[in-house]
Design a protein that fits this description.
The complex is a heterotetramer, with one copy of chain A, one copy of chain B and two copies of chain C. By secondary structure, chain B is an alpha+beta fold. Chain C has one domain (2-79): Phosphoribosylformylglycinamidine synthase subunit PurS (Mth169, Chain: A, 2-Layer Sandwich). Chain C is elongated. Classes of the chains: A alpha/beta, B alpha+beta, C alpha+beta. The A-D interface holds A 58-59, 62, 66, 94-95, 101-102, 104-109, 149-150, 175 and D 10, 14-15, 17-18, 21, 66-67, 69, 71-72. Strand 2 of chain C pairs antiparallel with strand 2 (34-47) of chain D, so a sheet runs across the interface. The complex binds adenosine-5'-diphosphate (ADP) and magnesium ion. The site of magnesium ion has 4 residues of chain B, from loops.
Chain lengths: 226, 749, 88, 88
């Protein structure tokens, strides 16, 4: 039996299809979850995909956070359910306070779509064990509100606890503090990042590599091993 | 104010009506009265005036557009032709593809962000209405001079609007154009193209049939925005001395449109609609009259049922409102409940507003009283048609006689080098990454090629790897010199771009951007361009499946360059076999395909170095284009080339530099014996491409070219860290990259 | 030094998707009785020197030509007393 | 029916590139003497029923949990007299 990984569709989610594809490519079973449905249908892990939930109106992720399914995700995450938030999903996680900090408009005020180099800083999370510490990966980045912000104390705490999971390499694409591209919660089950690993699972599409596949193979191994 | 009912209209024939203010001509108003046998009601007048506007009725262009049908080549691929929301093309394996390009020029000048955003929204709904899932967008754009202050207002707004809307919809942007020319200063051209895919059996048409079927309006509520926008905005010369006439612009809601797409696709999936139409220009007037006109019966609408955002709207305003993100469906009564359920699931408002009736009239009621009773065809399809006077401009001969051959040329390698750097740094030839990096090209995970490749390519079947490619091109400078040839060159370039990526060109869409049809010189340009495009489509075997006309693009008496923009759709059986433009492998051989003549009229060189426009555009040889395309497609299929890039504005050197920069590899090139270095580098002869051939494939490739009679000259090798033209100059890639990439950010930052 | 505030709101007849989205979310948050929400922009300008009529007229011109697009937006300009700063 | 206005601004210590972009453009528009520009959001809520202290408290809670993200933003809530409507 393989792992069942849920992908939530909020109104305005865009990369849910891609997340399902990535899960399939990794060898797990994707399960579609609907924002209005509190029931998580016994999935083993959840992906909050990229997109513009509720048009990103008000603030990115702010409205989605209050959807019925998020009540279950928040409760589950507190009990160790693995959750990965990609881009808009990361924004939903910070708005839900499952991850600290907040996401602001890119400092150059434009949407940015490009190939992004990242360094994997923490391979102890549920979603990163297939990488090696310090590994450099290239995956697509595409967002309008990707500038990670938190107060100094929080930033210091994240650094001290090794919870900065990914850092931008090369020029910082959005003004994110301390080049933070993604973080994890203390337990390592909840991970959020702005770039898109699900767009980097086959050589033909995305920026033409498979560097993102490790997220999905990591979680699969962990779930099947359990 | 008393309601102007049909009964009242019949009994008060003398009532003065504001037909002139609504843009109708005296004889057009008379015709309405004849059709109805009485004066129109206010609501009827509103409908006729918007539907008979230039934008909706194509009254000046129709007589010329007919050629696209009359001269259409035999093509097995055409499933739905011109006249529907968009044409549909068979791409094999049971898939059909629909695509179309449209303009949103005038609104984008007034409110760049929203104008461009709603342009994307409108074309996406057109594609959706055919039954297709939209899979990609493209955006051919034209602005005034790059260094003009107003360009800094218009361009960033337009780009942000296209990105803001398209990104939020989740449609990858896979290509387009960014062109600067002072002629577009007060009239930027914002064209938007959408591609959609469906199974053959899922094609939907805009027609209302089946007496008793319900008419459902769904999507956003109807508000007071954009009322009359269609007739006033798209049909009147823009005159900024009268700000009071500035009409309202619509605001788009891409989130609502995303829901509309998903909701509509689910409705299609359950086969719940008998007919469907998007609401675009002319709003409900257009949707109801077109649906009824194309169907078999009549239609009765209760206008009170239309959900409003502003309860004070009059019935005329409701009929004319261009509120965005709305669709109109014809649904069998026993499917209505399920239809509404799906709408509810997606948070999309939906209301039954009427039904298909026996008979043949479109009847609209307001508070129980009849305010419209018209034959729908007379509104939708039998508008006025003009045979506008046309005359070859008296300046055309002098313009063509002003040959660039007399312009001073670079005389040595040092001057050539300097001019190459100026060329690749010029706004039109420079990298457009500043623009395209604001567009999501990865979403949906099927984008195989996107900007800056020659065409965008999207996989449509993940198991078989079937894919489609689309490119758009246009060159107003060529078309100004000779509109017939200019239109053909636009098609030829787009066709070549599709073939360069390995896809077989199948079909065409076009957006014809011109000045005022009331100017005989403009009308001549328009007629010539249509004739040129139709003739070329016939020769290339690629039918025009649909498109759009945008007239009145002029400031005062000065029209824009005639600018036909042509989109070509191609198909590729296996996207793994696509050809990229990058020179990526050291040691591969660079071949120049086609013939180079001295052709500099309208060229980038004449513009950048001499600010000159004159002479004749490059000659078109469509048979050669076809042969070149066949070779490029065969070479891609059989793995004979690793890279291909078409030659167009900027000539060989521009293409060479782009392929080198893309791959991060240099090239060493030798000027062929029979060519002058300057002509070799800068001429814009059509029907050419460069390819990178692995040494192991050289014999096979040259044999194929030889056997088919396509000139193929080995001009160099992929090598080193610079672009070197032997005996002339050597420019490091870093220097070229800086020149090519710094310009646009420098102008807009 | 004084603070001049420019509020820019979409004209009433223009669709406000952001305001709509906020409004639609309210019932789900247990919040009833709001019949409409409109969302606009607020600019706070710290102006050097006295804010006399001439200065205000210039800010108004700035708002008209730059901060707002009067095709779709209305604006108001006012001088703010330097007090109400803190949250809530 | 009354209008309650919620103004949401980025906290002073948070970089506001939108405000900065406006400020940078001002000299080019012939506009001198503005030492800072901040850009925020303005929400206009049309509230049914009387806007008493209890109602205001609820709007404040709404602002705190929803309209603003207090990690990065401050807000103010006030009842607006139904007068100042027209442009400029
Ligand atoms: N507005 C735009 N949107 C998307 N892609 C664009 C845009 N402008 C240019 N591009 C892309 O940049 C590349 C270079 O454009 P261009 O030089 O016009 O190509 P070509 O000369 O081959 O037609 C192409 O891939 C084109 O699709
Ligand atoms: Mg090209």
């Amino acid at each position: 039996m393989t792992a069942r990984i849920g992908v939530i569709t909020f109104p305005g989610s865009l990369d849910d299809q891609d997340s399902r594809r990535a899960i399939r490519v990794a060898g797990a079973e994707p399960v579609s979850l609907w924002h209005r449905d509190r029931d998580l249908h016994q999935v083993d892990a959840v992906v909050l995909p990229g997109g513009f939930s509720y048009g990103d109106y008000l603030r990115a992720g702010a409205i989605a956070r209050f959807s019925p399914v998020m009540e279950s995700v928040i409760a589950g995450a507190r009990e160790g359910l693995p959750v990965l938030g990609i881009c808009n999903g990361f924004q939903v996680l910070t708005e839900s306070h499952l991850l600290p900090g907040a996401m602001l408009r890119n400092n150059h005020l434009h949407f940015v779509c490009r190939e992004q180099r990242l360094r994997v800083e923490n391979t102890g999370t549920a979603w990163t064990s297939d990488y090696t510490e310090g590994q450099e990966i290239r995956i697509p980045l595409k967002n309008m509100d990707g500038r990670y912000t938190a107060d100094e104390r929080t930033l210091d705490m994240l650094e001290a606890e090794g919870r900065v999971a990914f850092r931008y390499l090369g020029s910082n694409p959005n003004g994110s503090l301390r080049d933070i591209a993604g973080i994890t919660n203390g337990a390592g089950n909840v991970v959020g990042l702005m770039p898109h690993p699900e767009h980097a699972v086959e050589p033909l599409t995305g920026t033409g590599g498979t560097d993102g596949l490790g997220f999905f193979t990591s979680i699969l191994k962990r779930l099947v091993a359990v | 104010m008393t309601l102007d009912t049909v009964g009242r209209a019949a009994s008060t024939p003398q009532t003065e009506q504001p037909w002139a203010e609504l843009g109708l001509k005296p004889d057009e108003y008379q015709r309405v009265r004849e059709i109805l046998g009485r004066r129109p009601t206010g609501a009827e007048l509103a409908m006729y005036s918007v539907m008979w506007s230039e934008h909706c009725s194509y009254k000046s262009s129709k007589v010329h557009l007919r050629q696209f049908g009359e001269k259409a080549p035999e093509s097995d691929a055409m499933l739905v032709g011109i006249g529907e929301n968009a044409g549909v093309v068979d791409v094999g394996q049971g898939y059909a593809v629909t695509f179309k390009v449209e303009s949103h020029n005038h609104p984008s000048y007034i409110e760049p962000y929203q104008g461009a955003a709603t342009g994307v929204g409108g074309i996406v709904r057109d594609i959706l209405a055919m039954g297709a899932r939209p899979i990609a967008v493209m955006d051919p754009l034209r602005f005034g001079a790059a260094d003009h202050p107003d360009t800094r207002r218009v361009l960033p707004g337009v780009v942000a609007g296209i990105g803001g809307y398209g990104n939020c919809l989740g449609l990858p942007n896979i290509g387009g154009e960014v062109v600067f020319d002072p002629c577009y200063q007060g009239n930027p051209l914002v064209n938007a193209l959408c591609v959609g895919v469906m199974r053959h059996e899922d094609i939907h048409l805009a027609k209302a049939s089946g007496v008793g079927n319900k008419v459902i309006l769904y999507g956003a509520r109807t508000g007071g925005d954009g009322i009359g926008g269609v007739s006033v905005l798209a049909s009147e010369t823009f005159d900024d001395t009268k700000p009071a006439k500035r009409p309202a612009v619509q605001v788009g809601d891409p989130f609502q449109e995303k829901l509309l797409i998903e909701c509509t696709l689910e409705i299609f999936g359950e086969k719940l609609v008998a007919g469907i139409q998007d609401l675009g220009g002319a709003g409900l007037s257009c949707a109801t009259s077109e649906l009824a006109s194309a169907g078999s019966g009549g239609m009765r609408i209760e206008l009170d049922a239309v959900p409003l955002r502003d309860s004070s709207l009059s019935p005329e305003e409701i009929l004319m409102s261009e509120s965005q993100e709305r669709m109109c469906a014809i649904v069998e009564p026993d499917k209505v409940d399920r239809f509404l359920e799906i709408c509810e699931k997606w948070d999309v408002g939906a209301t039954v507003i009427g039904e298909v009736t026996e008979g043949s009239r479109l009847e609209i009621f307001w508070h129980g009283e009849q305010i419209v009773d018209v034959p729908p065809r007379s509104v939708a399809h039998e508008g006025p048609t003009y045979q506008r006077p046309l005359a070859r401009p008296e300046w055309q001969d002098a313009l063509q006689a002003d040959d660039p051959g007399r312009l001073p040329r670079p005389t040595d390698g040092r001057e050539l080098r300097e001019q190459v750097l100026r060329l690749v740094a010029s706004p039109n030839q420079a990298s457009k990454a500043w623009v395209t990096d604001q567009y999501d090209r990865f979403v949906q995970g099927n984008t195989v090629l996107a900007q800056p490749e020659d065409s965008g390519m999207v996989r449509i079947d993940e198991d078989t790897n079937l894919g489609v490619a689309v490119a758009t091109d246009g060159n107003g400078r060529y078309a100004k010199l000779d509109p017939y040839t200019g239109a053909q060159l636009a098609l030829a370039e787009s066709y070549r771009n599709v073939a360069a990526t390995g896809a077989k060109p199948l079909a065409v869409t076009d957006c014809l951007n011109f000045g005022s049809p009331e100017d005989p010189a403009v009308m001549w340009q328009f007629a010539e361009a249509c004739r040129g495009l139709a003739d070329a489509c016939l020769t290339l075997g690629t039918p025009v499946t649909g498109g759009n006309v945008s007239l009145y693009n002029q400031t005062g008496d000065t029209a824009i360059h005639p600018t036909p923009v042509v989109g070509v759709l191609g198909v590729i059986d296996d996207v793994n076999r696509r050809t990229q433009m990058a020179f990526a492998e050291e040691g591969q051989l660079i071949y120049l395909l086609g013939e180079t003549r001295e052709e500099l009229g309208g060229s980038a060189w004449s513009q950048v170095i001499h600010d000159h426009l004159g002479g004749r555009p490059p000659a078109v040889d469509l048979e050669r284009e076809r042969l070149l395309a066949e070779i490029l497609v065969a070479a891609s299929r059989d793995g004979m080339v690793d890279a291909a890039h078409d030659l167009s504005d900027g000539g060989l050197v521009q293409a060479l530099v782009e392929s080198c920069l893309r791959g991060g590899r240099g090239a060493r090139v030798v000027v062929p014996d029979d060519l002058d270095p300057f002509v070799f580098l800068f001429s814009e002869s059509a029907g050419r491409a460069i390819v990178a051939v692995p040494r192991s494939e050289e014999v096979r490739f040259t044999d194929m070219c030889g056997a088919r009679g396509l000139p193929a000259a080995r001009i160099g090798v992929v090598d080193g860290e610079s672009v070197e033209v032997q005996g002339q100059f050597d420019i490091p890639l870093a220097e070229l990259r800086e020149a090519h990439e710094a310009t646009i950010p420098g102008l807009l930052a | 030094m004084a603070r001049v505030v420019v509020d820019v709101m979409l004209k009433p007849e223009i669709l406000d998707p952001q305001g709509q989205a906020v409004q639609r979310a309210l019932p789900g948050l247990g919040f009833q009785g709001v019949s409409q929400v409109r969302q606009g922009k607020r600019f706070e300008l710290e102006v050097e020197g006295p804010v006399d009529d001439a200065a205000l007229a210039r800010v108004r011109e700035l708002a008209e030509t730059f901060l707002a697009n009067t095709v779709i937006e209305d604006f108001t300009v006012r001088v703010e007393p330097e007090t109400e700063k803190a949250a809530s």
